[in-house]
Amino acid sequence: MVLKPDMGAYAVQVQDPCWPDVMPALSMTYSPWQQWGPVYEAEVGLSRGTIFPGLDKPFLEGACPCV
């Protein structure tokens, strides 16, 4: 591990013996393709915040006990 004070928040660099000059990725995302399907009418979609029924989920305020 090498400290690089001139890099600010990225001051700690992990050294990989195979790739000594490459910074490792901080994270990776998984973004599946949205499948087109049935959609709500414009008025319904506007009131629900989405035109896709598959994304229309209830808001459960306080449902998580750890918050």
UniProtKB/TrEMBL annotation:
Pfam families the UniProt entry points to: CotJA (PF11007)
Xref: InterPro entries: Spore_coat_CotJA
Protein name, entry field: Spore coat associated protein CotJA
Superkingdom to which the source organism belongs: Bacteria
